[in-house]
UniProtKB/TrEMBL annotation:
InterPro entries: Homeodomain-like_sf (IPR009057), HTH_AraC (IPR018060)
TM regions (residue ranges): 6-22, 34-55, 61-79, 91-110, 116-133, 154-174
PANTHER family xrefs: ARAC-FAMILY TRANSCRIPTIONAL REGULATOR (PTHR43280)
Organism listed in the record: Aureimonas pseudogalii
Keyword annotations: DNA-binding, Membrane, Transcription, Transcription regulation, Transmembrane, Transmembrane helix
Name recorded for this polypeptide: AraC-like DNA-binding protein
HTH araC/xylS-type domain segment(s): 232-338
Length: 354
């Protein structure tokens, strides 16, 4: 029986996720090449790990270290792109190639500290991601509104995973120093399982950030309106005008940055204004308009619920159902049945009076 090392399975799953998502383009990965590169890098690294630890092929070692030093900066750049109102310029990205370049130089000139440098890179970028995540979901101005909560959570998970990878490397080093590497294989396998989870999340984030919409956590309660200034009320009124007159909530690709651009105001000012004036997040605010539109269509048309969902601006049925229940307390199908029953009763009453 041929045994396939776990890292190869991880790599195959990652490639499957990547190829299917790009072919369907449902996840919007083509719109964010950084996430494509991130998933591809993890897939290649998993293959290299499988060759090294599954088949004891040491020839891949010169490739593993530079790629490892590139993955953490790539993860940072990918998630950081969701916090920018404009795409990052190359001048802001190239400095993040320096860790990999430093590792290559050290491998030639002084190999001893390479492991420590990689640990420092993972720890540093992991902390940087968590520090950026402290701004909350509203800091991800380029994320599509309903996916912003999931994007934020995935950023946190990725930051923690990078720190866990650094800790795993330290444990492997200690295992070699004290136990001759007796447990290193198990540690590497466990680390790749974590990598699979992180990369699966990264794949969904690429979509959630730039394509797929996800509802807010139903258990999360928005802050109550507090201290709305005149400027906040003015901004909130302008947003409401956009919703009513231009119906921008029907745009499947709508995000905070697009709203802010239409108003020619900073994205954070728009987010803060809606939060303070209405006591809800931007995504909840927009989804309330979408649900209102869906309710109207469910009452006035016989269109399939899926068509109603897209026409109202929702991207997935699960998000549509969650937000519809948040606003109305029932599912779209139940809401339509209620309307049909009310119409039937009205018709019977009308016939009875004739």
């Amino acid at each position: 029986m041929i045994l396939v090392p776990l890292p190869f399975v991880v790599s195959l799953l990652l490639l499957t996720i990547l190829v299917q998502a790009v072919r369907r383009d449902e996840e919007g990965l083509r719109a964010n090449p950084l996430f494509v590169a991130l998933i591809a890098a993890y897939s290649v690294q998993s293959v290299l790990v499988g060759l090294r630890w599954g088949y004891e092929w040491r020839g891949v070692l010169p490739l593993m270290s530079p790629l490892a030093a590139l993955i953490a900066p790539l993860a940072w750049a990918s998630f950081r792109s969701l916090t920018r109102e404009e795409p990052a310029a190359m001048t802001t990205l190239w400095p993040h190639l320096l860790p990999a370049a430093a590792v290559v130089a050290l491998m030639v000139l002084w190999p001893d500290p390479v492991g420590a440098v990689i640990v420092a890179v993972f720890a540093g970028y992991g902390l940087a991601l968590l520090w950026t995540a402290r701004l909350g979901p509203n800091g991800l101005v380029s994320s599509r509104l309903d996916g912003v909560l999931r994007s934020h959570r995935a950023m946190q998970i990725t930051g923690v995973a990078l720190l866990a990878s650094a800790a795993t490397d330290i444990l492997i080093g200690l295992d070699f120093a004290w136990g001759g590497g007796a447990h290193s294989g198990m540690l590497v396998a466990l680390g790749n399982v974590v990598a699979l989870l992180v990369q699966g999340k990264a794949a969904s984030i690429a979509g959630a950030g730039l394509a797929e919409i996800e509802a807010d956590d139903p258990n999360e309660r928005p802050d109550a309106p507090t201290g709305a200034t005149n400027e906040d009320l003015t901004t909130a009124a302008l947003v409401e005008r956009l919703m009513r007159e231009q119906e921008i909530y029907r745009d499947l690709d709508l995000n905070l940055e697009r709203i802010a651009r239409k108003l020619r105001r900073p994205a954070r000012d728009v987010s803060s204004a809606i939060n303070r004036a209405h006591g809800m997040s931007v995504s909840q605010y927009v989804n309330t308009y979408r649900v209102k539109r869906a309710r109207q269509l469910l009452k006035e048309t016989a269109d399939p619920i899926t068509k109603v969902m897209f026409d109202a601006g929702f991207g997935t049925k699960s998000n549509f159902n969650r937000e519809f229940q948040r606003v109305t307390g029932m599912t779209p199908s139940a809401y339509r049945r209620t309307g049909d029953e009310a119409s039937a009763v009205a018709e019977l009453l009308g016939e009875a009076t004739l």
